[in-house]
Write a structure and sequence with these properties.
By secondary structure, the chain is an all-beta fold. The chain has no helices and four strands. Helix content is 0%, strand content 47%. The protein is flat, with a radius of gyration of 19 Å. The mean pLDDT is 77.
């Protein structure tokens, strides 16, 4: 664990734990398929899924 944060927000206390994970890089990724996530400011969220096709 790297750090613990105590944050006050809306008259409440929130605790955040910050830690680092080791990620194995031998996973096979399909780079022709993409998923985009936009949390937005005015909207709740947006998900866009792309899949490449051969023309």
């Amino acid at each position: 664990m790297r750090e613990i944060r105590i944050i006050t927000r809306n008259h409440c206390f929130y605790v955040e734990w910050v830690y680092q994970l080791e990620i194995e890089s031998d996973q096979a990724l399909e780079k022709d398929k993409v998923l985009g996530i936009d949390h937005g400011i005015d909207n709740w969220g947006l998900l866009i899924k792309f899949k490449s096709i051969d023309i």
